[in-house]
TrEMBL record:
<dbReference type="Pfam" id="PF04247">
    <property type="entry name" value="SirB"/>
</dbReference>
<feature type="transmembrane region" description="Helical">
    <location>
        <begin position="72"/>
        <end position="91"/>
    </location>
</feature>
<feature type="transmembrane region" description="Helical">
    <location>
        <begin position="97"/>
        <end position="119"/>
    </location>
</feature>
<dbReference type="GO" id="GO:0005886">
    <property type="term" value="C:plasma membrane"/>
</dbReference>
<protein>
    <submittedName>
        <fullName>Uncharacterized membrane protein SirB2</fullName>
    </submittedName>
</protein>
<keyword id="KW-1133">Transmembrane helix</keyword>
<feature type="transmembrane region" description="Helical">
    <location>
        <begin position="41"/>
        <end position="60"/>
    </location>
</feature>
<keyword id="KW-0472">Membrane</keyword>
<dbReference type="InterPro" id="IPR007360">
    <property type="entry name" value="SirB"/>
</dbReference>
<keyword id="KW-0812">Transmembrane</keyword>
Length: 151
């Protein structure tokens, strides 16, 4: 069940990005399709499902990664909040195109940073030690071996 919810969670994340990109393009174009009911309600449904799946994943995770207790989970939560605020800036609050692009770039930045954080955590969990220095050493040795293979 955990893997099903996890993959559902990841799919929801991808769909929120797709909805954002579509809404942003239509907003810049000045299209009336921005007011389409699916484009208006869809992201809110996805955010709700995102939060529900995130709560489930936090509750059943074997690593005990809880927001406000663990720095990783708190960073992920902050990244999500900043992602949503950036989307709101790009689509609703901004009155000029420049500020819309600021919100757009910010949203993409927080999306990528949250994804990198998730990937970095996965690397740490799969590593042999819980020590942060061991994680950094593992990452450095992996990148050095990749450089050797490339050259």
């Amino acid at each position: 069940m955990y893997m099903i919810i996890k993959h559902t969670h990841l799919t929801i994340i991808a769909l929120t990005l797709v909805f954002f990109l579509i809404n942003f393009a239509l907003t810049l174009k000045g299209s009336d399709k921005v007011n389409n009911k699916l484009l208006k309600i869809g992201p809110h449904i996805l955010y709700t499902l995102f939060i529900v799946t995130a709560i489930y994943l936090v509750m059943v995770n074997p690593l005990q990664l809880y927001p406000f207790v663990n720095g990783w989970a708190s960073s992920k939560l902050a990244g999500f909040v900043l992602y949503v605020l950036s989307i709101t800036l790009a689509l609703k609050w901004a009155k000029t195109t420049v500020w819309r692009f600021v919100g757009f770039i910010s949203a993409l930045f927080w999306f990528v940073m949250s994804a990198r954080l998730a990937y970095a955590h996965r690397l740490k969990v799969k590593g042999a030690a819980e020590d942060v220095n061991a994680y950094i050493d593992t990452f450095q040795s992996m990148s050095q071996s990749m450089l050797v293979v490339v050259s």
